[in-house]
Design goal:
Shape: globular
Strand content: 15-25%
Largest sheet: 7 strands, mixed
InterPro entries: FTHF_cligase, FTHF_cligase-like_sf, NagB/RpiA_transferase-like
Strand order of the largest sheet: 3-2-1-6-9-10-11
Keywords: ATP-binding, Ligase, Magnesium, Metal-binding, Nucleotide-binding
Protein name: 5-formyltetrahydrofolate cyclo-ligase
GO molecular function: 5-formyltetrahydrofolate cyclo-ligase activity
Organism: Galbibacter pacificus
CATH superfamily: NagB/RpiA/CoA transferase-like
Order of helices and strands: HHEHEEEEEEEHEEE
Helix content: 10-25%
Radius of gyration: 15 Å
Number of domains: 1
CATH class: Alpha Beta
């Protein structure tokens, strides 16, 4: 299957999940993350889940990060140029839901991309080589291209990997790790 077909298949798989299943699977993913050797870093970028797309509930990971006193960075999308601007999450950060249903900071303290140590990446599907399929707009590939070379790129998936994708693009950036409810894949 090509990316377009896989994108559709995994959207359907996600929409078949109940709210309870999403919560349980999200907790399992957060628990899997605890076993990784990533917790000595400072700045952690995390997306906030789009509920209508039945994304992984990242609030459990957010609780871990806050419990470990980490600097949490959340993105704000610019749909004019398909880029992300990253802001420090503080007690004063006002979260709004944009016109696409994405929870994001209204404003705040901007954090340069080269300061970020770990990025938790949303995806629809991934393969056994660490390639991922997102929504197709390239936001995260553009963002990751501006991060340090040693940034740790962690995908989060409800589902196990596909064998391989047959229509990769030269700008696609591979994951270092992908965490599912049952397994941690390292690439």
């Amino acid at each position: 299957m090509n990316k377009k077909e896989l994108r559709q298949l995994y959207k359907e798989k996600r929409f078949a999940l109940t709210k309870s299943e999403i919560e349980n699977l999200s907790i399992q993913i957060a628990n899997q993350l605890l076993s990784l050797k990533i917790w000595d870093q400072i700045f952690y970028h995390i997306f906030l889940a789009i509920e209508k797309h039945k994304e992984i509930d990242t609030s459990f990971i957010l609780s871990i990060l806050q419990g470990k006193d980490k600097e949490v960075v959340i993105p704000k999308s610019n749909f004019l140029n398909s880029t992300l601007t990253n802001y420090l999450l503080t007690d004063n950060t006002k979260i709004i839901i944009n016109e696409y249903g994405i929870p994001e900071p209204e404003n705040g303290i901007e954090i340069a991309n080269d300061k970020i140590d770990v990025v938790f990446i949303p995806l629809l599907a991934f393969d056994k080589k660490g390639n991922r399929i997102g929504y197709g707009k390239g936001f995260y590939d553009r963002f990751l291209a501006t991060c340090r070379k040693d940034v740790i790129k962690i995908g989060l998936s409800f589902f196990p990997p596909e064998e391989a994708f047959n229509d990769l693009h030269h700008q696609d950036i591979e994951l270092d790790i992908c965490v599912t409810p049952d397994t941690i894949y390292k690439f």
